[in-house]
Amino acid sequence: MPFSKLGLSDPLLRAIADAGYSTPSPIQLQAIPAVLNGHDLLAAAQTGTGKTAGFALPILHRLSQHNYGANRPVRVLILTPTRELAAQVGESVSKYGAHLHPRLKTEVVFGGVKINPQMMRLRGGVDVLVATPGRLLDLINQNAVKLDKVETLVLDEADRMLDMGFIRDIRKIIALLPKKRQNLLFSATFSEDIRKLTTGLLVNPIKIEVAARNTAAETVEQIAYLCNKAGKAELLCHLIKSNDWQQVLVFTSTKHGANRLTEKLNKINIKAAAIHGNKSQGARTSALSGFKAGEIRVLVATDVAARGIDIALLPHVVNYELPRAPADYVHRIGRTGRAGEEGQAISLVSHDEVAALRMVEKLIGKPIKREQIAGFEAAEVAPPMPPEPPRAPRPPRNSSQARKPSGNASKKPRARSSV
Ligand code: AMP
Protein backbone atom coordinates (compact mmCIF):
# COMPACT_ATOMS: atom_id res chain seq x y z
CA MET A 1 0.00 0.00 0.00
CA PRO A 2 1.41 3.41 -0.92
CA PHE A 3 1.68 6.31 1.54
CA SER A 4 -1.04 8.16 -0.36
CA LYS A 5 -3.64 5.57 0.78
CA LEU A 6 -2.97 6.03 4.49
CA GLY A 7 -5.00 9.21 4.92
CA LEU A 8 -2.15 11.69 5.38
CA SER A 9 -2.51 15.25 4.10
CA ASP A 10 -0.76 16.49 0.96
CA PRO A 11 1.91 18.58 2.73
CA LEU A 12 2.94 15.45 4.63
CA LEU A 13 2.97 13.34 1.47
CA ARG A 14 5.24 15.93 -0.11
CA ALA A 15 7.63 15.70 2.84
CA ILE A 16 7.61 11.91 2.52
CA ALA A 17 8.49 12.25 -1.16
CA ASP A 18 11.27 14.72 -0.25
CA ALA A 19 12.67 12.16 2.19
CA GLY A 20 12.75 9.66 -0.67
CA TYR A 21 10.47 7.08 0.95
CA SER A 22 8.51 5.13 -1.61
CA THR A 23 6.54 2.66 0.51
CA PRO A 24 5.57 2.65 4.19
CA SER A 25 7.54 0.31 6.44
CA PRO A 26 5.51 -2.38 8.28
CA ILE A 27 5.28 -0.32 11.45
CA GLN A 28 4.17 2.75 9.51
CA LEU A 29 1.45 0.73 7.75
CA GLN A 30 0.00 -0.20 11.11
CA ALA A 31 0.78 2.84 13.24
CA ILE A 32 -0.25 5.66 10.90
CA PRO A 33 -3.96 4.74 10.56
CA ALA A 34 -4.19 3.86 14.27
CA VAL A 35 -2.72 7.17 15.41
CA LEU A 36 -4.77 9.12 12.87
CA ASN A 37 -7.88 7.56 14.39
CA GLY A 38 -6.87 8.76 17.85
CA HIS A 39 -6.05 5.37 19.33
CA ASP A 40 -3.48 4.69 22.02
CA LEU A 41 -0.59 2.60 20.77
CA LEU A 42 1.62 -0.05 22.26
CA ALA A 43 4.35 -0.72 19.74
CA ALA A 44 7.18 -3.20 19.90
CA ALA A 45 9.61 -1.50 17.61
CA GLN A 46 13.05 -0.04 17.74
CA THR A 47 15.28 2.32 15.85
CA GLY A 48 15.66 1.29 12.25
CA THR A 49 12.07 0.22 11.70
CA GLY A 50 10.86 3.66 10.63
CA LYS A 51 8.98 4.13 13.89
CA THR A 52 9.70 7.87 14.11
CA ALA A 53 7.80 8.59 10.91
CA GLY A 54 5.23 6.05 12.13
CA PHE A 55 4.24 8.36 14.96
CA ALA A 56 5.42 11.77 13.72
CA LEU A 57 3.44 11.80 10.47
CA PRO A 58 -0.02 11.06 11.91
CA ILE A 59 0.66 13.31 14.90
CA LEU A 60 1.53 16.20 12.58
CA HIS A 61 -1.56 15.44 10.52
CA ARG A 62 -3.80 15.66 13.57
CA LEU A 63 -2.07 18.76 14.93
CA SER A 64 -2.44 20.64 11.69
CA GLN A 65 -6.16 19.87 11.52
CA HIS A 66 -7.14 22.36 14.19
CA ASN A 67 -6.14 25.85 15.13
CA TYR A 68 -3.93 26.68 18.00
CA GLY A 69 -4.07 29.72 20.18
CA ALA A 70 -1.60 32.57 19.89
CA ASN A 71 0.39 31.37 22.90
CA ARG A 72 1.09 27.93 21.40
CA PRO A 73 0.83 25.52 24.30
CA VAL A 74 2.72 22.23 24.03
CA ARG A 75 0.27 19.89 22.34
CA VAL A 76 2.58 16.98 21.65
CA LEU A 77 5.17 15.78 24.13
CA ILE A 78 7.74 13.22 23.01
CA LEU A 79 9.97 11.76 25.73
CA THR A 80 13.19 10.00 24.76
CA PRO A 81 15.96 8.45 26.85
CA THR A 82 18.97 10.18 25.27
CA ARG A 83 20.01 13.51 23.86
CA GLU A 84 20.93 11.97 20.54
CA LEU A 85 17.57 10.36 20.09
CA ALA A 86 15.80 13.56 21.17
CA ALA A 87 17.78 15.54 18.59
CA GLN A 88 17.06 13.02 15.85
CA VAL A 89 13.36 12.82 16.62
CA GLY A 90 13.20 16.63 16.66
CA GLU A 91 14.91 16.76 13.28
CA SER A 92 12.50 14.19 11.84
CA VAL A 93 9.44 16.04 13.13
CA SER A 94 10.70 19.29 11.59
CA LYS A 95 11.52 17.52 8.32
CA TYR A 96 8.11 15.86 8.02
CA GLY A 97 6.33 19.10 8.94
CA ALA A 98 8.31 21.25 6.50
CA HIS A 99 5.39 21.87 4.10
CA LEU A 100 2.65 22.45 6.67
CA HIS A 101 0.95 25.85 6.75
CA PRO A 102 1.01 27.43 9.17
CA ARG A 103 4.30 25.92 10.26
CA LEU A 104 4.33 24.03 13.54
CA LYS A 105 7.05 24.81 16.00
CA THR A 106 9.18 21.97 17.34
CA GLU A 107 11.73 22.29 20.11
CA VAL A 108 14.17 19.78 21.55
CA VAL A 109 15.40 19.98 25.15
CA PHE A 110 17.89 17.72 26.92
CA GLY A 111 20.34 17.81 29.77
CA GLY A 112 24.08 18.29 29.62
CA VAL A 113 23.83 21.73 28.04
CA LYS A 114 22.86 25.12 29.46
CA ILE A 115 19.23 25.44 30.43
CA ASN A 116 18.83 29.18 29.78
CA PRO A 117 18.86 29.09 25.99
CA GLN A 118 16.26 26.32 26.17
CA MET A 119 14.09 28.47 28.43
CA MET A 120 14.35 31.32 25.94
CA ARG A 121 13.38 29.09 23.05
CA LEU A 122 10.33 27.82 24.90
CA ARG A 123 9.13 31.30 25.70
CA GLY A 124 7.36 31.91 22.41
CA GLY A 125 5.48 28.64 22.79
CA VAL A 126 5.98 25.37 20.95
CA ASP A 127 3.61 22.86 19.40
CA VAL A 128 5.80 19.78 19.63
CA LEU A 129 8.28 19.35 22.45
CA VAL A 130 10.86 16.57 22.33
CA ALA A 131 12.58 16.11 25.69
CA THR A 132 14.61 13.89 27.93
CA PRO A 133 12.73 13.44 31.22
CA GLY A 134 15.22 14.99 33.68
CA ARG A 135 15.69 18.24 31.78
CA LEU A 136 11.97 18.55 31.15
CA LEU A 137 11.31 18.38 34.90
CA ASP A 138 13.95 21.06 35.50
CA LEU A 139 12.22 23.28 32.96
CA ILE A 140 8.84 22.63 34.52
CA ASN A 141 10.24 23.48 37.95
CA GLN A 142 11.51 26.76 36.57
CA ASN A 143 8.10 27.52 35.09
CA ALA A 144 9.55 27.52 31.60
CA VAL A 145 6.96 25.14 30.23
CA LYS A 146 3.46 23.92 31.02
CA LEU A 147 1.99 20.61 29.99
CA ASP A 148 -1.70 21.12 30.70
CA LYS A 149 -2.69 21.27 27.02
CA VAL A 150 -0.84 18.18 25.86
CA GLU A 151 -3.01 16.17 23.46
CA THR A 152 -0.55 13.41 22.63
CA LEU A 153 2.21 11.83 24.70
CA VAL A 154 4.87 9.68 23.05
CA LEU A 155 7.22 7.53 25.11
CA ASP A 156 9.98 6.60 22.71
CA GLU A 157 12.30 3.74 23.65
CA ALA A 158 10.40 3.34 26.89
CA ASP A 159 12.43 0.29 27.91
CA ARG A 160 15.63 2.28 27.74
CA MET A 161 14.13 5.12 29.75
CA LEU A 162 13.31 2.64 32.49
CA ASP A 163 16.78 1.06 32.25
CA MET A 164 18.21 4.51 32.76
CA GLY A 165 16.18 5.03 35.91
CA PHE A 166 13.71 7.57 34.52
CA ILE A 167 10.58 5.87 35.82
CA ARG A 168 9.94 8.35 38.66
CA ASP A 169 10.54 11.32 36.39
CA ILE A 170 8.19 9.86 33.81
CA ARG A 171 5.47 9.32 36.39
CA LYS A 172 5.88 12.88 37.65
CA ILE A 173 5.57 14.21 34.11
CA ILE A 174 2.52 12.07 33.35
CA ALA A 175 0.83 13.43 36.48
CA LEU A 176 1.05 16.93 34.97
CA LEU A 177 -0.71 16.02 31.73
CA PRO A 178 -4.43 16.34 31.04
CA LYS A 179 -6.27 13.12 31.85
CA LYS A 180 -7.76 12.90 28.39
CA ARG A 181 -5.02 12.49 25.83
CA GLN A 182 -3.57 10.07 23.31
CA ASN A 183 -0.66 7.90 24.47
CA LEU A 184 1.84 6.17 22.23
CA LEU A 185 4.45 3.89 23.71
CA PHE A 186 7.37 2.45 21.78
CA SER A 187 9.64 -0.13 23.28
CA ALA A 188 12.00 -2.73 21.90
CA THR A 189 11.46 -5.09 24.81
CA PHE A 190 8.56 -5.73 27.19
CA SER A 191 9.75 -6.34 30.71
CA GLU A 192 7.56 -6.52 33.78
CA ASP A 193 8.38 -2.86 34.47
CA ILE A 194 7.16 -1.79 31.04
CA ARG A 195 3.98 -3.76 31.54
CA LYS A 196 3.43 -1.99 34.85
CA LEU A 197 3.96 1.37 33.22
CA THR A 198 1.54 0.65 30.39
CA THR A 199 -1.22 -0.43 32.75
CA GLY A 200 -3.05 2.71 33.70
CA LEU A 201 -1.27 4.73 31.01
CA LEU A 202 -2.69 3.24 27.84
CA VAL A 203 -6.42 2.96 27.20
CA ASN A 204 -7.41 0.09 24.89
CA PRO A 205 -4.19 0.43 22.96
CA ILE A 206 -3.72 -0.93 19.47
CA LYS A 207 -0.84 -3.36 19.75
CA ILE A 208 1.75 -3.43 17.05
CA GLU A 209 4.64 -5.75 16.84
CA VAL A 210 7.26 -5.54 14.19
CA ALA A 211 9.04 -8.81 14.43
CA ALA A 212 11.61 -7.63 11.95
CA ARG A 213 14.11 -6.26 14.41
CA ASN A 214 14.46 -9.29 16.62
CA THR A 215 14.96 -11.37 13.57
CA ALA A 216 16.68 -8.25 12.24
CA ALA A 217 19.16 -9.81 11.13
CA GLU A 218 18.10 -11.82 8.16
CA THR A 219 20.24 -9.59 5.96
CA VAL A 220 22.93 -9.28 8.62
CA GLU A 221 25.73 -11.77 8.69
CA GLN A 222 26.53 -12.48 12.34
CA ILE A 223 29.91 -13.88 13.31
CA ALA A 224 31.49 -14.43 16.71
CA TYR A 225 35.28 -14.46 16.65
CA LEU A 226 36.55 -16.44 19.59
CA CYS A 227 39.65 -14.76 20.88
CA ASN A 228 41.63 -13.77 23.94
CA LYS A 229 40.52 -10.77 25.94
CA ALA A 230 43.96 -9.22 25.78
CA GLY A 231 44.18 -9.65 22.03
CA LYS A 232 40.91 -7.92 21.13
CA ALA A 233 42.36 -4.53 20.15
CA GLU A 234 44.90 -6.20 17.90
CA LEU A 235 42.23 -8.41 16.37
CA LEU A 236 39.98 -5.43 15.71
CA CYS A 237 42.81 -3.56 13.97
CA HIS A 238 43.54 -6.66 11.92
CA LEU A 239 39.87 -6.94 10.86
CA ILE A 240 39.62 -3.27 9.94
CA LYS A 241 42.82 -3.29 7.94
CA SER A 242 42.58 -6.66 6.25
CA ASN A 243 38.94 -6.11 5.22
CA ASP A 244 39.54 -2.44 4.48
CA TRP A 245 36.47 -1.41 6.50
CA GLN A 246 35.86 2.29 6.04
CA GLN A 247 32.97 2.82 8.43
CA VAL A 248 32.58 0.71 11.52
CA LEU A 249 30.64 1.19 14.72
CA VAL A 250 32.26 -0.53 17.69
CA PHE A 251 30.50 -1.14 21.01
CA THR A 252 32.36 -1.35 24.28
CA SER A 253 30.80 -2.00 27.65
CA THR A 254 32.48 0.89 29.50
CA LYS A 255 33.32 4.53 28.86
CA HIS A 256 36.96 3.92 29.84
CA GLY A 257 37.12 0.97 27.51
CA ALA A 258 35.79 3.17 24.72
CA ASN A 259 38.46 5.81 25.42
CA ARG A 260 41.28 3.28 25.61
CA LEU A 261 40.30 1.60 22.38
CA THR A 262 39.92 4.94 20.59
CA GLU A 263 43.42 5.95 21.66
CA LYS A 264 44.88 2.66 20.46
CA LEU A 265 43.22 2.96 17.06
CA ASN A 266 44.30 6.55 16.59
CA LYS A 267 47.88 5.62 17.50
CA ILE A 268 48.05 3.26 14.55
CA ASN A 269 46.41 5.82 12.27
CA ILE A 270 42.95 4.36 12.18
CA LYS A 271 40.91 7.51 12.73
CA ALA A 272 38.54 6.86 15.63
CA ALA A 273 36.35 8.80 18.03
CA ALA A 274 34.49 7.77 21.16
CA ILE A 275 30.97 8.68 22.09
CA HIS A 276 29.71 8.09 25.61
CA GLY A 277 28.05 9.81 28.53
CA ASN A 278 31.21 11.52 29.80
CA LYS A 279 31.75 13.35 26.54
CA SER A 280 30.32 16.81 26.14
CA GLN A 281 27.36 17.23 23.88
CA GLY A 282 29.59 19.11 21.42
CA ALA A 283 32.13 16.28 21.31
CA ARG A 284 29.40 13.71 20.78
CA THR A 285 27.78 15.67 17.99
CA SER A 286 31.05 16.30 16.18
CA ALA A 287 32.12 12.65 16.54
CA LEU A 288 28.82 11.55 15.07
CA SER A 289 28.87 14.01 12.19
CA GLY A 290 32.54 13.22 11.46
CA PHE A 291 31.62 9.56 11.33
CA LYS A 292 28.64 10.17 9.08
CA ALA A 293 30.78 12.30 6.78
CA GLY A 294 33.40 9.57 6.51
CA GLU A 295 36.12 11.60 8.25
CA ILE A 296 36.12 9.22 11.18
CA ARG A 297 36.51 5.59 10.30
CA VAL A 298 35.66 3.99 13.63
CA LEU A 299 33.05 5.25 16.07
CA VAL A 300 33.47 3.63 19.48
CA ALA A 301 30.32 3.84 21.55
CA THR A 302 28.71 2.62 24.73
CA ASP A 303 25.16 1.30 24.55
CA VAL A 304 23.52 4.27 26.17
CA ALA A 305 25.27 6.84 23.99
CA ALA A 306 24.61 4.90 20.83
CA ARG A 307 20.98 4.33 21.55
CA GLY A 308 18.83 5.72 18.82
CA ILE A 309 21.72 6.84 16.65
CA ASP A 310 20.54 6.67 13.10
CA ILE A 311 23.27 6.10 10.63
CA ALA A 312 21.95 4.98 7.32
CA LEU A 313 23.22 1.70 5.98
CA LEU A 314 26.05 1.03 8.33
CA PRO A 315 27.96 -1.90 6.87
CA HIS A 316 29.80 -3.14 9.98
CA VAL A 317 28.98 -3.25 13.66
CA VAL A 318 31.47 -4.77 16.08
CA ASN A 319 30.73 -5.90 19.61
CA TYR A 320 34.13 -5.40 21.18
CA GLU A 321 32.51 -6.77 24.28
CA LEU A 322 29.15 -8.50 24.36
CA PRO A 323 26.49 -6.50 26.17
CA ARG A 324 25.31 -7.64 29.57
CA ALA A 325 21.69 -7.59 28.48
CA PRO A 326 21.10 -9.79 25.41
CA ALA A 327 18.43 -7.37 24.16
CA ASP A 328 21.17 -4.78 23.71
CA TYR A 329 22.83 -7.10 21.19
CA VAL A 330 19.72 -6.84 19.07
CA HIS A 331 19.70 -3.04 19.44
CA ARG A 332 23.33 -2.87 18.45
CA ILE A 333 23.16 -5.00 15.38
CA GLY A 334 19.95 -3.24 14.37
CA ARG A 335 22.23 -0.52 13.12
CA THR A 336 23.37 -2.55 10.22
CA GLY A 337 21.49 -4.29 7.46
CA ARG A 338 18.77 -1.66 7.36
CA ALA A 339 16.28 -1.44 4.56
CA GLY A 340 17.26 -4.84 3.26
CA GLU A 341 20.91 -3.89 2.74
CA GLU A 342 23.49 -6.43 3.73
CA GLY A 343 25.45 -5.85 6.89
CA GLN A 344 27.89 -7.61 9.12
CA ALA A 345 27.71 -7.87 12.89
CA ILE A 346 30.94 -9.12 14.39
CA SER A 347 31.39 -10.03 18.04
CA LEU A 348 34.79 -10.48 19.64
CA VAL A 349 34.10 -13.11 22.24
CA SER A 350 36.55 -14.06 24.94
CA HIS A 351 36.24 -17.13 27.08
CA ASP A 352 34.38 -15.33 29.87
CA GLU A 353 31.74 -14.07 27.44
CA VAL A 354 30.69 -17.40 26.06
CA ALA A 355 27.73 -17.61 28.44
CA ALA A 356 26.61 -14.15 27.25
CA LEU A 357 26.90 -15.33 23.66
CA ARG A 358 24.64 -18.26 24.42
CA MET A 359 22.07 -15.93 25.99
CA VAL A 360 22.09 -13.83 22.84
CA GLU A 361 21.58 -16.94 20.72
CA LYS A 362 18.66 -17.93 22.91
CA LEU A 363 17.08 -14.51 22.45
CA ILE A 364 17.49 -14.33 18.70
CA GLY A 365 16.52 -17.97 18.37
CA LYS A 366 19.42 -19.09 16.25
CA PRO A 367 23.08 -19.96 16.58
CA ILE A 368 25.75 -17.41 15.73
CA LYS A 369 28.57 -18.66 13.57
CA ARG A 370 31.78 -19.06 15.57
CA GLU A 371 35.07 -18.51 13.84
CA GLN A 372 38.67 -17.94 14.71
CA ILE A 373 41.27 -15.95 12.89
CA ALA A 374 44.67 -17.47 12.50
CA GLY A 375 47.06 -15.81 14.91
CA PHE A 376 44.25 -14.51 17.12
CA GLU A 377 42.70 -17.76 18.30
CA ALA A 378 41.25 -18.12 21.76
CA ALA A 379 43.94 -19.59 23.92
CA GLU A 380 43.15 -22.12 26.55
CA VAL A 381 42.20 -19.66 29.23
CA ALA A 382 40.86 -20.93 32.51
CA PRO A 383 38.22 -18.99 34.43
CA PRO A 384 39.81 -16.12 36.38
CA MET A 385 40.39 -18.14 39.53
CA PRO A 386 43.72 -18.76 41.23
CA PRO A 387 45.69 -20.88 40.85
CA GLU A 388 45.90 -20.43 37.13
CA PRO A 389 46.71 -23.56 35.19
CA PRO A 390 49.73 -23.36 32.92
CA ARG A 391 48.87 -21.92 29.54
CA ALA A 392 49.46 -23.79 26.36
CA PRO A 393 52.15 -22.17 24.24
CA ARG A 394 50.76 -19.76 21.64
CA PRO A 395 50.62 -21.26 18.22
CA PRO A 396 52.91 -19.60 15.71
CA ARG A 397 51.24 -16.89 13.64
CA ASN A 398 50.54 -17.75 10.14
CA SER A 399 48.99 -14.86 8.33
CA SER A 400 48.57 -16.80 5.13
CA GLN A 401 45.97 -18.91 6.90
CA ALA A 402 42.53 -17.64 6.10
CA ARG A 403 39.59 -17.51 8.52
CA LYS A 404 39.14 -20.83 10.05
CA PRO A 405 35.79 -22.07 11.30
CA SER A 406 36.18 -23.11 14.90
CA GLY A 407 34.84 -26.56 14.24
CA ASN A 408 37.75 -27.40 11.98
CA ALA A 409 40.47 -26.27 14.29
CA SER A 410 42.01 -28.89 16.44
CA LYS A 411 44.77 -27.18 18.41
CA LYS A 412 42.72 -26.05 21.41
CA PRO A 413 40.19 -28.70 22.19
CA ARG A 414 39.42 -27.56 25.72
CA ALA A 415 38.68 -23.95 24.89
CA ARG A 416 36.59 -24.96 21.97
CA SER A 417 34.58 -27.60 23.70
CA SER A 418 33.52 -24.93 26.17
CA VAL A 419 32.05 -22.66 23.51
P1 AMP B 1 13.65 5.15 12.67
O1 AMP B 1 13.35 3.71 12.96
O2 AMP B 1 12.48 6.01 12.86
O3 AMP B 1 14.85 5.61 13.43
O4 AMP B 1 14.02 5.27 11.11
C1 AMP B 1 15.13 4.60 10.59
C2 AMP B 1 15.52 5.14 9.21
O5 AMP B 1 14.59 4.74 8.23
C3 AMP B 1 15.60 6.66 9.12
O6 AMP B 1 16.80 6.98 8.45
C4 AMP B 1 14.42 7.05 8.28
O7 AMP B 1 14.71 8.22 7.53
C5 AMP B 1 14.25 5.83 7.39
N1 AMP B 1 12.86 5.61 6.98
C6 AMP B 1 11.74 5.80 7.70
N2 AMP B 1 10.64 5.44 6.99
C7 AMP B 1 11.07 4.99 5.80
C8 AMP B 1 10.42 4.47 4.63
N3 AMP B 1 9.11 4.33 4.58
N4 AMP B 1 11.19 4.12 3.58
C9 AMP B 1 12.54 4.24 3.64
N5 AMP B 1 13.22 4.73 4.72
C10 AMP B 1 12.50 5.09 5.79
Give me a quick take on this structure.
The protein has 419 residues and is an alpha/beta fold.
Account of the protein in words:
This protein is of the alpha/beta class and 419 residues long. The protein has 2 domains: 3-209, Rossmann fold, CATH 3.40.50.300; 220-371, P-loop containing nucleotide triphosphate hydrolases (Rossmann fold), CATH 3.40.50. The chain has helices at 10-19, 26-36, 51-63, 83-96, 116-123, 133-141, 158-163, 167-175, 192-198, 232-243, 255-267, 281-292, 303-306, 326-333, 354-364, 413-417; strands spanning 41-44, 76-79, 106-109, 128-131, 152-155, 182-187, 206-209, 220-226, 248-251, 272-275, 298-301, 316-319, 343-349, 369-372, 404-405. The strands form 2 sheets. It has an 8-stranded mixed β-sheet with strand order 10-11-9-12-13-8-14-15, with helices on both faces. It has a 7-stranded parallel β-sheet with strand order 3-4-2-5-6-1-7, with helices on both faces. Helix 3 packs across helix 4 and helix 14 crosses helix 15. The longest helix is centred in the N-terminal third of the chain and has 14 residues, at 83-96. The chain starts with 9 loop residues before the first helix and ends with a helix. Residues 381-389 and 396-419 have low confidence and may be disordered. Adenosine monophosphate (AMP) binds next to helix 3. Adenosine monophosphate binds next to helix 3.
